[in-house]
Amino acid sequence: MEHDLVSISPINGRYRREVQELSDYFSEFALMRERVFVEIEYLIFLSKLLNLDLKAIKKRQ
Which residues make Cβ contacts (< 8 Å) with residue 24, sequence separation at least 6? Predict the structure, then answer.
């Protein structure tokens, strides 16, 4: 049995073979992966906009 995070909906049961490739794009895991990507890109954008040195911030912790 696959993990629920890669399921796209109840259709995964009966039609799993037909929709298996879609789980890379429409599963809960795919949504979380893309959210993290967007958050990281946003952080990079803000650091450049505000001239922040993220490496220096990390070293202070």
Answer: 30
Of residues 3, 37, 9, the one with CA closest to residue 22: 9
**8 close to 26: Cβ distance less than 8 angstroms:** yes
Q: Record the tokens describing residue 23, joined without a space.
A: 């789980």
CB 5 within 8 A of CB 27: yes
pLDDT digits (tens, 9 = 90+) for 23-36: 888 888 899 999 99
What pTM does this model have?
0.64
Which residue, among 6, 34, 3, has the nearest Cα to 19 in the 3D structure? 6
Please report, for the chain, the start and end positions of each structural domain, with discontinuous segments joined by +: 4-60
Only one residue has tokens 């993990």, namely 3
pLDDT of residue 49: 92
